[in-house]
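pls read this stuff:
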Amino acid sequence: MRTDTDKRSIVEKAMAKQRENNKVRSLPHVNDEEKELMDSRNSLIQDLDAVVRRYVRIRDADENGLVKCYCCTTKKHFTLMQCAHYISRKHIGLRFDHKRNLRTCCKHCNEDLDGNLEVYKLELNKEQKGLPEELEEQSRLVEKPTNDELKSLLIEMRAKLKIVESKLKNIKK
């Protein structure tokens, strides 16, 4: 017998949790102007995440929208695949590095196998000898792009996304 009394659906609970996570927590030492800047930065990062994820999945797809997982043989429509990071997203300097760090993977490899990093590393090394080590080294650097740099990158990535979207025959936005 269930003991929880929360009658909300799983989706409603998840959405409420997401809204809570997106809020800048009230910090006593942060004034209203700083909170607004933090909200703005978080919004920029979320927008960039969405655009870059879509760009990577479409970039790796064929003209019918099918894409093969970078780590296994799974082949599905790009909307059913995920954008995987060799170096985790917490390293902001590599978070949006679509050329070297981001590839399209299936949900199983990306989530269930935590990125399937052993295979991911081998595949990156096949593409460019020493690339995994280069990325690992760069991840040790502390980088914090400014809001202006993030805005600039967002504009650039939106333009690139439009270009790759045009290669698909029947795209649903």
Q: What stands out?
A: Helices lie at 10-22, 32-59, 92-95, 107-112, 117-127, 131-138, 147-165. Strands lie at 66-68, 75-77, 82-85, 102-105.
